Each structure stands twice: as structure tokens, then as C-alpha cells.
């Protein structure tokens, strides 16, 4: 069965390699996955899943330029996913995962969150996710 984080990406083969440090973005580039994700985003910009999936397709420090010229990092894409769906545990987990240990993320409502607080919120929303428990423990 897929992990609680694996269901975010609707392309099962992408998720199979996305766990490696560089695998996900390499597959996205080599097979045109990112272009499909961009088309989905253009068609439905209000869908949090599209923003999160684009974030998963980027390298850690990579920046994506959208058709309107705006630039988006992994962090900003995950923040947008949370803005669109503030009750989505997967988005909280992924935003926490891109933060450095003492770094905070500011959400669209102006609140600032630490990695631990983001992981805790993800667990509040979905306590069944073992990956988030492990990540929270590792961040302490």
C-alpha cells in the first residue's frame, strides 16, 4: 500500500523514485512530467494538489518560472498548497521537510511556523502517518 505521503502525486511511477534526493526531479525532467504538472496547474490553479506536486518535482534549491513570470521555490509551492487547503496534512509535512532546523515558514495568514510545529499540525490532521512521526522525532 502507498504511504500516507505517496498519495499526493497522481503519477505512481514518479513517487516510486521521488524519495531519492535527486530522483524525483530527474524523472520529472526526463519524462516530461513537469510539463504535465504545469498544464494541470494552468487549467486548475485553485487545486492544492497541483502546487504540491510541482514542489515535489523540484530540486531543493531549484526555482520554477511560471508562464506569468512569477518564480516559485519548493517552499513557496508548498506554502501555496497550504493556502489553498489549510487542512491538508501532506502539505504541512512537505513544507516542514524543506525548512532548515531553526528556520520558520510564514503562511499566507501571517503566522510563522517552525519545522516541529508544521510536523505537529500534520499529525493533528492525520496521526496515522508514520513518516511524519519519524520526521518530527528527527527534527527535535
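Sequence proposed for the structure above (140 residues):
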Amino acid at each position: 500500500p502507498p504511504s500516507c505521503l505517496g498519495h499526493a502525486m497522481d503519477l505512481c511511477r514518479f513517487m516510486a523514485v521521488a524519495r531519492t534526493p535527486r530522483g524525483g526531479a530527474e524523472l520529472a525532467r526526463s519524462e516530461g512530467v513537469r510539463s504535465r504538472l504545469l498544464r494541470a496547474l494552468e487549467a486548475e490553479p485553485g487545486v492544492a494538489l497541483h502546487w504540491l506536486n510541482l514542489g515535489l518535482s523540484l530540486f531543493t534549491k531549484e526555482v520554477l518560472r511560471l508562464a506569468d513570470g512569477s518564480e516559485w521555490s519548493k517552499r513557496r509551492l508548498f506554502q501555496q498548497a497550504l493556502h489553498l487547503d489549510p487542512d491538508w496534512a501532506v502539505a504541512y509535512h512537505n513544507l516542514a521537510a524543506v525548512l532548515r532546523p531553526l528556520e520558520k515558514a510564514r503562511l499566507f495568514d501571517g503566522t510563522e511556523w517552525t519545522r516541529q510545529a508544521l510536523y505537529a499540525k500534520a499529525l493533528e490532521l492525520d496521526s496515522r502517518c508514520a513518516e511524519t512521526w519519524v520526521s518530527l522525532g528527527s527534527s527535535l
